[in-house]
Design brief:
Elements lengths: L11 H10 L17 H8 L2 E3 L6 E6 L24 E6 L2 E10 H6 L8 H21 L13 H4 L8 E2 L2 E2 L9 E4 L4 E2 L2 E2 H4 L3 H14 L7 E4 L1 H12 L25 E3 L2 E5 L7 E5 L4 E6 L5 E2 L3 E2 L7 E14 L6 E4 L7
């Protein structure tokens, strides 16, 4: 409803008369207020792999021990006869299916057939994507093992076995190779304190990345994800040593832009960036060579189309958007979770 008594708009009977005969001036765009961006999800979507049908839509053969043995030989060159050593087993994951029903009521079709400012149907279809992205962003950073309908995540995929002992059907307690890296921030030195109290600095982050790389067999992690409040603390350590180099003969003026702060922080060659959905106090480090999103080739944001409700005794239509997806890692040890980070900037 229009608001009376503001600007030149009158109140009382004059206001009632004007509202009866005056069209409102609409901004013909809908501005959504309630959602958060998730750079992690869009990175994963850009490199998503296809999955097809089957009982376990994602089956990953993994080798957990050496399949042959070697030995040094002497003058005679003799060696022990080899024997087969079984070392391969399957990690198996199902796709999780997310559905969003979309209503199209009879009255809405009639009323908005021609004279409309904002199409409710277009707004609703756009919201299908937004709601799905928010749900996926949340699921990626949650321990979903308590509900078999939900997808896997960073939290269960990268766990060392303490909180999630079974991953992809393989028990981590009896298969040590299948555990990821979990590091307590209280064990990471940061000056005279620890990361659990003061947060990450450039030095403590660099040391942690080297530890992750060493445990992962020498492979460098692809990127690190932190909550904005945690990344801001690390960013503050960078800003404290910023330097601006002036070229001889150049002058700074009011139109000269001097950049301060960083969109992401590069430590030891690893980009560290912020994601709203990453829980505060937790940092995720992943290796994209082995950690991927999988998406069903038959249900990749597919829309059923609208179907009439007449057979169930109603006028109107409804459809449904279906997404089959999961996030898995084929080499948990190449990834890491750091928990208990303190010193949050906000």
């Amino acid at each position: 409803m229009p608001i009376p008594g503001q600007g030149v708009v009158p109140t009382g009977s004059l206001y009632n008369e004007l509202t009866a005969v005056t069209r409102r001036a609409f901004v013909s765009r809908l501005f959504v207020q309630i959602y958060f961006a998730t750079p992690t999800l869009f990175h994963l979507l850009g490199g998503a792999l296809k999955a097809q049908g089957g009982l376990s839509q994602i089956t990953v053969p993994v080798q957990g021990q050496s399949m042959v043995t070697g030995q040094y030989v002497g003058y005679s060159g003799s060696f022990n006869a080899p024997s087969p050593i079984p070392a391969i087993q399957d990690a198996q994951f199902p796709l999780a299916y997310w559905v969003v029903p979309v209503p199209l009521p009879f009255g809405e079709q009639i009323i908005q057939a021609s004279d409309r400012e904002i199409s409710l149907l277009k707004a609703r279809m756009n919201d299908v994507w937004s709601v799905t992205v928010q749900q996926m962003g949340t699921n990626l950073f949650s321990n979903n093992t308590g509900n078999s309908l939900l997808p896997n995540s960073f939290i269960d995929g990268f766990d060392s076995g303490t909180n999630v002992p079974v991953y992809g059907g393989i028990n981590r307690n009896s298969n040590a190779f299948w555990g990821g890296q979990t590091i307590a921030a209280s064990s990471i030195a940061s000056g005279t304190s620890t990361v659990s109290t003061v947060g990450f600095t450039r030095k403590s982050m660099a040391n942690t990345l080297m530890q992750i790389q060493n445990t992962a067999g020498g492979e460098v992690t692809t990127a690190g994800i932190m909550n904005p409040g945690d990344l801001a603390t690390l960013n503050g350590d960078f800003i404290g040593v910023e330097q601006i180099f002036t070229r001889p003969g150049n002058e700074y003026s009011i139109s000269t832009a001097v950049r301060s702060g960083f969109p992401n922080l590069n430590v030891a060659g690893v980009p560290i960036y912020a994601d709203h959905f990453c829980p505060q106090g937790t940092a995720i480090f992943f290796n994209s060579r082995y950690s991927n999103m999988y998406m069903s080739e038959d249900a990749a944001f597919d829309f059923s189309g609208f179907y009439s409700l007449v057979p169930v005794g109603g006028l109107g239509q409804q459809g449904v958007v279906v997404l089959g997806w999961n996030f898995i890692t084929a080499k948990p040890v190449s990834n890491c979770i750091v928990t208990g980070i303190g010193g949050n900037a906000f």
